[in-house]
Amino acid sequence: QQLNSSASKLENMNSNSFADDIADVQTWVSAALTNPSTCLDGLGGANKNIVPVVNAKTEKSTEFMSNALAVINKLSDVSGM
């Protein structure tokens, strides 16, 4: 959900609200980035065999979100936010 909101915000961004829009996107992507870790933490007491499986399944999406957040942060820095 956070990533969909972020993509929609980026598609509809305008110069009048750029700072607010970028701040929203940073917040949502950061929140999405914490979801896999929170999920793994929640599995701590579960079957220990499932944790590596879930970790492997979320590794690429976590890397993607981290890279996306780095680009968004750079946009914010470059624009003086």
UniProtKB/TrEMBL annotation:
The record ties this protein, via Gene3D superfamilies, to: Invertase/pectin methylesterase inhibitor family protein
Cited SUPFAM superfamilies:
Plant invertase/pectin methylesterase inhibitor (SSF101148)
From what superkingdom does this record's organism come?
Eukaryota
Stretches assigned to the Pectinesterase inhibitor domain? 2-71
InterPro entries tied to this protein: Invertase/methylesterase_inhib (IPR035513), Pectinesterase_inhib_dom (IPR006501)
A Pfam family matched by this chain, by name? PMEI
What GO molecular-function term can you cite, just one?
A: enzyme inhibitor activity
- What is this protein identified as? Pectinesterase inhibitor domain-containing protein
